[in-house]
Each structure stands twice: as structure tokens, then as C-alpha cells.
Inverse folding.
């Protein structure tokens, strides 16, 4: 038998286009052909289990072979095979049913995935790398004749009798010159590893040698012999395909190590498993992230029926959960993972919401079941939770019950608990509850100490995300504001009705202000004389909360107005405590030299308490102090 024909009149130029436009992604030919082989194998298994195939299935595996001399790659399976009629139907017609549309759309397509997936051109991706493709196949059906299909990349094909004696299909790719990179064993192995690592049918790629016990030698020592075994590159039953009840913690940890050999053990994980209204399985791990979250992205792998698709899961996974690791498998996610398409896809939105909900549920469960353990993990979890609360409204609503605040004494509170704790003392005259926080307990020690002396509590907010988290809390919590503990002198941080009056007269205040301005001699230091408690420090240097926050945001990458604040010089307020006895002493001092030295000394002490005293100023301070002790 021999038959020649034309694939389709509409598709004169389809192969050159496939080659040209899909070239950048051409390694996916292997994914497509191995998937087809797996599909054919799975179909056979299914027929056998339904009793529709009664023969021996034999050892079902897919084999990928490389022949460097012939410059061929062969993908073989023992699946259902095809009759020549089926080749005509499935390869020549069906695979090309979308061809006309394809010809219209290919110009808009941005990458190979988009075209391959959308137009069902899986098999034809072979022509991205081949100048000739052969199908050598024998159908499982009783009495079927082997068939061979050959196509040289033009629109003409040829079907003849085949010579296959065993059920199944060989796809033989005669690589073209530009594709000779694929004649490299390591290259092929790495592609298989990327796309086929978790396919449900064993994939053999060559052999490897193994040592096997072989009796004992004359001295009674065990002997070994080397044997050749099939090198199976995949794990056919990855954990996400199993029921959570079948799995132990160790299985999840082992799988994590398999995926990310270099990473520390994860904190915990979530097993995803839904089949309505969309189908999705997977395991998401919470890694130990600490603070460098940029590095951690693109760690979630997306599969479709165990075929690896991409690790760009943007749009499928909510932005804040991109920090997670693991796998998601969904036949409902279109293979062509291109942005515009995904955003329009209804399932993707649902999947996104589902994952957000599952993550929130899991965190809530951990929080409820073991508060202590949850607190211990907070350094790592906190980053996700806060990031999620900032970026996803829905997640904020769930997380507000289990987000924790930690104070400088390392105690943890939920939002309601914390409000309960501080509202008594920390409500100002406008009925606003003021939460105080520190982002550097070392530098702000003096301020923390002063606040605590007043019975105030100070939160620790030192992760890179906290600047944004603070703004979010203020927006969400009613009548609550957050102030860094060094944003002002303690009495102004939480302004009360009772005001301590300065004992100084107006003239004295003016004089003190001038004295300090002269001694400090910096335009960025704005001196103000106020009446504070006599016990407070004589001088306190602070930066306004609003100004500092704008600067922090500018530093962590806020655009627009933030740039404006980022460029302003650092301005500070120097609060002189008119009620401190040092000020009295200064006013009584006759020698203006000494007056100035005292002012400078008090100012430097304020700087010193915040780690702001450096360089020549520090040297001057040390020398002046030595002189003062000597005096
Ligand atoms: P899809 O896999 O999406 O159906 P393809 O272009 O990859 O599209 O394959 C087209 C058709 O060719 C398949 O649906 C199948 O019927 C047939 N086919 C391809 N490869 C094999 C194979 N190895 N064994 C049996 N049939 C195959
Ligand atoms: Mg296919």
C-alpha cells in the first residue's frame, strides 16, 4: 500500500511559520511528543481496565533514544498506536483543524506556547526541529496493519505499510541543522528533566550501570558485578497525585527536597485538592524566607496532568503567594500561559481566589491549633501574612484574625488583643489610640526606655515590609495611628489634655533657643523649647513621623511624590526641655563659652543616644567630655 496526499490547501506555508516563529521555544517539541506517547499509553491502560483491550499490556514505558550518527531522536511508546486511517484522521486532519485560524492568528502570537496550545499543534511542533518526521505505528486493534507516515516538512505526506511488529508508536525525528544542539545527551536529559519529571508513565532515557551483589570472593568478601539498567528519568506518582490521607510529613519533606535540593526545610505546607468548579491539585510549601524575598520568586511549578508547563505562575497565584514553593497541577489552566489570555480566563480568577482562601484557612488552623508554635514561626510567616494583607483585600479580611504584632519584649498579640492592652494609657486627647513602634531597638533604646517609663508599650516593626504594613493598619483600624517611638518627645507622641508648662519665661525661652541654635549651627536641626517633665532628657532629637515615613517609602521604591520626599534633606526637631535643671544652670552661667559648650554637650548626648553622633562631631564630643571631667 502506498498513498500520497496533501495535508491541507490552506496550510501551504505552515511549516516555515512553525519553524520561524516558534524557534525560541523549540525545546518544547520533546514535551509535546513525550506527552502524546504518555497519552497513548494511558489510553491503552484505560482500555485494558475497561476490558476493551484483552491482550498483554506488557511493561508500559516511553523511551527516548538519541542516535548521533543518524541525527535522529526517537520517541517510542507501547500505547494504543494508530491505523493508517487514524493517522489520516488525527495527524493530517484533526491536528490541522485549527490551521486556517492559525494562519490568521500567528502574527499576533507572542510565544510558542500560545500557538501550540491554542491550535492543538502539539504533534507538529516536531517540525520546529526536524527536516523529516516519521511515524511508525501499530494499532492495538485486532488485525491492525502496521503503518508508516513520512513527511518532509512540506505539505506533502506519504503513508505506506509499516514494519512495526509490536503494538505502539515510534516517532522518529530527523533533526535539521539548526537543531543539532539536541543531539547532546545532557541537553536532552535536562529538557526531559524539566518537562517530564513527573509524568505518570515511566520515561526511559538510555541506561546506566548499577552494582549488584555477586556472591563472595575467595576471602569471603562480598563481590559485585556491574549491570545495565533502564534509566528512568521520572517519578510517576508525585505526592500531589495522592490523597493527603495517604501521606506522612516525611513524604512532603522528601518531595520538597526533591524539588529544591538546596533549600532549608519548609515551615509547613498545604495540600490543594479540588475538582469543582475547576480541577486543581498541588502542594504549596511555606519556605523559610527571612527577608530576601526577591530571590524566592518563580518557585512554584505549574503542571497540566503532570506535564510541566511553566514556573511563571503570575496571575494564577496571587502576587503575595509567589513567595511560596511547590507545585500546582490543573488541566483547567490553559497550556498557553500568556498573560493576556490568562487574565481573561475565568478559571484562573477562581483558582486565584481558591488558593488565597486555602492559605488563609491553613494559617488560621495553625494559629488556633498551636498558638505557641505559630508564634515561633512568625518571623517567616509574618512576611507572607503582612504582604498578603497589603496586596489582597480578601486576604486582609481573613488574616486580620491571625496576624500578630510583636512588641520589643518579644510578646505577641493579635490586633484585638493589642488594642485591649494599650488603649487605656495610649489613647490621646482626640480619642485616637496611638501604637508606638521601633524599627531598631538598639538605636532607639533611649526612646523606648522613656516610653516604657510612662507605661507605654512599644511594638517591634523591623521587616522591610513593615513601612507598608503600618500604613495599611492605619487605614484599616479605626481611630488608630502608629508612631515610631522616636518621632517626637514622649509627651507629644501621645498628646494628652494635661500639658506641662515650661518654667521659663518667654524671654528665657528665646534666649535658650538662640543659645542652642548657635551651638548646633545646622539648618537641618530645628530647635524648639518646650516644657517637659523635669525627669525627661534635656534635649531630644526627633524626626516627624510623616516626613520619615515618606522617606522610608521613597527608599523602598514608592514612585511619584515619594521621589520628592526622598530628595529632601533629613530634617530633625531638637526639643529642649525647659524644665530640666541643666537649662537653669545654663541660664545662670555667666561665661558664654561655657554656655555654648553645655548646649552642644546636651545636643550631642541626644544624638549619641540614637547612634547619630559620628565622625568629627564624635571626636569633638569625646574631647569636650574629657575636658569637662577634668574641669
Ligand atoms: P493532542 O495531543 O492535543 O490531541 P497532537 O497534535 O499532539 O494533539 O496529537 C494529535 C493526535 O495524534 C492525538 O490526539 C492522537 O490521536 C494522535 N497521536 C499523536 N501521537 C500519538 C502516539 N504516540 N500514539 C497514538 N496516537 C498519537
Ligand atoms: Mg499532544
Amino acid at each position: 500500500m502506498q498513498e500520497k496526499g496533501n495535508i491541507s490547501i490552506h496550510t501551504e506555508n505552515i511549516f516555515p511559520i512553525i519553524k520561524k516563529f516558534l524557534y525560541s521555544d523549540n525545546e518544547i517539541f520533546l514535551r509535546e511528543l513525550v506527552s502524546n506517547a504518555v497519552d497513548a499509553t494511558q489510553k491503552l491502560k484505560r482500555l485494558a481496565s475497561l476490558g476493551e483491550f484483552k491482550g498483554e499490556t506488557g511493561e508500559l514505558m516511553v523511551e527516548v533514544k538519541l542516535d548521533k550518527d543518524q541525527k535522529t531522536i526517537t520517541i517510542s511508546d507501547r500505547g494504543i498506536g494508530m491505523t493508517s486511517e487514524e493517522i489520516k484522521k488525527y495527524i493530517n486532519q484533526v491536528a490541522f483543524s485549527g490551521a486556517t485560524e492559525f494562519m490568521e492568528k500567528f502574527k499576533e502570537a507572542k510565544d510558542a506556547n500560545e500557538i501550540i496550545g491554542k491550535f492543538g499543534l502539539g504533534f507538529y511542533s516536531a517540525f520546529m526541529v526536524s527536516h523529516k518526521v516519521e511515524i511508525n505505528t501499530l494499532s492495538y486493534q485486532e488485525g491492525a496493519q502496521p503503518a508508516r507516515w513520512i513527511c518532509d516538512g512540506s505539505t506533502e505526506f506519504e503513508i505506506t505499510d509499516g514494519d512495526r511488529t509490536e503494538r505502539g508508536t515510534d516517532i522518529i525525528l530527523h533533526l535539521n541543522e539548526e537543531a543539532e544542539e539536541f543531539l547532546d545527551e545532557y541537553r536532552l536529559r535536562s529538557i526531559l528533566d524539566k518537562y517530564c519529571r513527573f509524568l505518570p508513565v515511566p520515561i526511559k532515557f538510555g541506561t546506566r550501570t548499577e552494582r549488584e551483589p555477586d556472591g563472595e570472593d575467595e576471602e569471603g568478601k562480598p563481590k559485585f558485578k556491574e549491570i545495565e539498567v533502564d534509566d528512568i528519568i521520572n517519578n510517576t506518582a508525585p505526592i500531589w497525585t495522592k490523597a493527603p490521607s495517604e501521606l506522612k510529613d516525611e513524604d512532603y519533606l522528601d518531595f520538597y527536597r526533591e524539588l529544591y535540593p538546596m533549600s532549608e526545610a519548609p515551615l509547613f505546607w498545604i495540600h490543594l485538592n479540588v475538582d469543582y468548579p475547576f480541577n486543581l491539585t498541588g502542594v504549596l510549601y511555606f519556605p523559610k524566607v527571612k527577608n530576601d524575598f526577591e530571590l524566592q520568586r518563580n518557585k512554584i511549578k505549574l503542571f497540566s496532568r503532570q506535564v510541566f508547563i511553566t514556573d511563571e505562575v503570575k496571575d494564577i497565584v496571587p502576587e503575595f503567594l509567589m513567595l511560596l514553593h511547590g507545585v500546582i497541577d490543573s488541566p483547567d489552566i490553559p497550556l498557553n500561559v500568556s498573560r493576556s489570555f490568562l487574565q481573561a480566563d475565568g478559571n484562573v480568577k477562581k483558582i486565584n481566589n481558591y488558593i488565597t482562601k486555602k492559605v488563609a484557612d491553613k494559617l488560621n488552623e495553625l494559629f488556633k491549633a498551636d498558638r505557641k508554635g505559630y508564634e515561633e514561626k512568625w518571623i517567616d510567616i509574618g512576611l507572607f501574612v503582612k504582604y498578603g494583607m497589603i496586596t489582597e483585600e480578601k486576604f486582609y479580611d481573613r488574616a486580620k484574625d491571625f496576624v500578630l504584632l510583636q512588641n520589643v519584649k518579644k510578646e505577641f498579640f493579635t490586633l484585638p488583643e493589642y488594642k485591649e492592652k494599650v488603649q487605656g494609657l495610649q489613647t490621646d486627647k482626640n480619642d485616637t489610640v496611638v501604637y508606638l513602634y521601633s524599627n531598631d531597638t538598639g538605636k532607639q533604646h533611649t526612646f523606648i526606655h522613656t516610653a516604657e517609663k510612662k507605661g507605654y508599650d512599644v511594638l517591634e516593626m523591623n521587616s522591610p515590609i513593615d513601612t507598608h504594613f503600618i500604613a495599611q493598619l492605619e487605614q484599616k483600624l479605626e481611630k488608630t495611628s502608629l508612631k515610631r517611638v522616636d518621632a517626637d518627645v514622649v509627651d507629644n507622641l501621645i498628646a494628652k489634655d494635661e500639658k506641662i508648662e515650661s518654667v521659663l519665661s518667654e524671654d528665657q525661652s528665646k534666649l535658650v533657643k538662640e543659645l542652642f541654635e548657635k551651638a548646633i549651627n545646622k539648618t537641618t536641626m530645628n530647635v524648639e523649647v518646650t516644657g517637659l517633665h523635669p525627669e525627661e532628657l534635656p534635649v531630644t532629637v526627633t524626626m516627624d513621623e510623616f516626613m520619615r515615613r515618606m522617606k522610608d517609602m521613597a527608599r523602598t521604591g514608592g514612585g511619584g511624590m515619594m521621589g520628592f520626599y526622598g530628595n529632601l534633606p533629613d530634617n530633625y526637631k531638637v526639643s529642649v526641655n525647659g524644665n530640666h535643671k541643666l537649662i537653669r544652670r545654663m541660664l545662670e552661667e555667666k561665661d558664654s563659652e561655657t554656655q555654648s559648650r553645655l548646649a552642644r554637650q546636651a545636643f550631642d548626648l541626644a544624638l549619641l543616644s540614637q547612634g547619630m553622633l559620628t565622625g568629627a562631631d564624635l571626636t569633638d564630643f569625646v574631647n569636650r567630655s574629657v575636658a569637662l571631667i577634668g574641669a
